[in-house]
């Protein structure tokens, strides 16, 4: 994220968090923001529409109204409209991600990004959650999973700047390095 984007994203995310805390809506906003971020990630068309400076603000607002409907708290919807009015809607993804960072801090939660060769079962996710809790002393763990068949098996766990490579590919690479010595 560029410095300029950071100067925009952080204050808006903080303001949204303050609003959410004052109304006891931190988790509700978190869930709604996760849904919005997922929508933006899965629809390049929507992202391009919102980011396009040529499209009139009232058109962007109309689309956001239609998308959010009754699924989004009116306060969060008003926040989205404010972003359009201020020409900041193109920072929605960054603001949403930063809000989730603030929410995790508030809840003493860490984000574990897990890459695996195959989809994880619930039992495997629970085991990894416990391992990450032990590793970080966090109260809870939020898991984000990605599939990468090239790993062959096992997982790679990334928590902040720490990376634990327990993948079969990583183990084979380490064996190869030992053999090459």
Automatic annotation (TrEMBL):
Alphabetized UniProt keyword annotations: ATP synthesis, CF(1), Hydrogen ion transport, Ion transport, Membrane, Thylakoid, Transport
InterPro entries: ATP_synth_OSCP/delta_N_sf (IPR026015), ATPase_OSCP/d_CS (IPR020781), ATPase_OSCP/dsu (IPR000711)
Principal cellular location given in the protein's record: membrane
Molecular function as annotated in GO: proton-transporting ATP synthase activity, rotational mechanism
SUPFAM superfamilies from the UniProt entry: N-terminal domain of the delta subunit of the F1F0-ATP synthase
PROSITE patterns according to UniProt: ATPASE_DELTA
Record's keyword annotation contains Transcription: no
Keyword RNA-binding: no
Domain of life, per lineage: Bacteria
Gene Ontology terms: cellular component: plasma membrane-derived thylakoid membrane; proton-transporting ATP synthase complex
Compartments it resides in: Cellular thylakoid membrane; Membrane
Membrane topology according to the record: Peripheral membrane protein
Role summary: This protein is part of the stalk that links CF(0) to CF(1). It either transmits conformational changes from CF(0) to CF(1) or is implicated in proton conduction. F(1)F(0) ATP synthase produces ATP from ADP in the presence of a proton or sodium gradient. F-type ATPases consist of two structural domains, F(1) containing the extramembraneous catalytic core and F(0) containing the membrane proton channel, linked together by a central stalk and a peripheral stalk. During catalysis, ATP synthesis in the catalytic domain of F(1) is coupled via a rotary mechanism of the central stalk subunits to proton translocation.
NCBIfam families from the UniProt entry: ATP_synt_delta (TIGR01145)
Family according to the record: Belongs to the ATPase delta chain family.
Listed HAMAP family: ATP_synth_delta_bact (MF_01416)
Designated name of the protein: ATP synthase subunit delta
Originating organism: Planktothrix tepida PCC 9214
